[in-house]
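User: My collaborator sent over this chain with a note saying "see what the structure looks like." That's all I know about it. Can you take a look?
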Amino acid sequence: MEYNNGLTKLIIPEYGRCIQGMVEYIVEVADREKRNRMAKTIVNLMAQMHPETREVGDVKRKLWDHLFIMSDFKLDVDAPYPKPEPQELYSKPPKLPYPENHITFKHYGKNTEHFIEKALLMEDGAEKDAFVKAIANHMKKSYLTWNRESVNDEVIYEHLSLLSQGRLKLSEDARLTNSIDLLPPKVKKIKFQDKVNQKHAKNYRNNWKRKNGEYNK
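Assistant: Without extra context I'll predict from the sequence alone. Here is the result:
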């Protein structure tokens, strides 16, 4: 008895071992016309195995590419599409250049630093003061995302000064939003028994309505 772990590995498993065996067979067929006919038959079988892909892009080309791949690019037939090259299939894509931006405080994120840069370009006045206060509240909310207990406003003032190199400060009468108001409300967890009781109560109401004919009104 043959087991799968003792057989050759399938190149494209989605087509199964039968299709793989057919492809390996026609590679050895000497008659070119016969190879062409058999290749077209195999492609049609592959299409029947996955009918859901018939409307997706250039399916026929994809099937012929898979046929050549399963033959380890050894199959020589007159295909309606150019034969894919192995280097195109196995070559690695170029490495993406990731930005190497240094973030002073990672829990505030890069956007906070962009906000501060924009605030530094603004003229002094009520609009700038309101914007700086909004930045400080955003920093406080971001800080609480990592530490949900609490944060001293003095810490936010200090970090704002560090990020702006001492050029941004809140007005003396400015007060930041309370930590409780910045955090989302806690969702009360419903116990399992409460859920069961609610389900029983709903079933009781529905049965009562059916019994008294209220569903027909």
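A starting point for your reply to your collaborator: The two ends are 69 Å apart (CA to CA).
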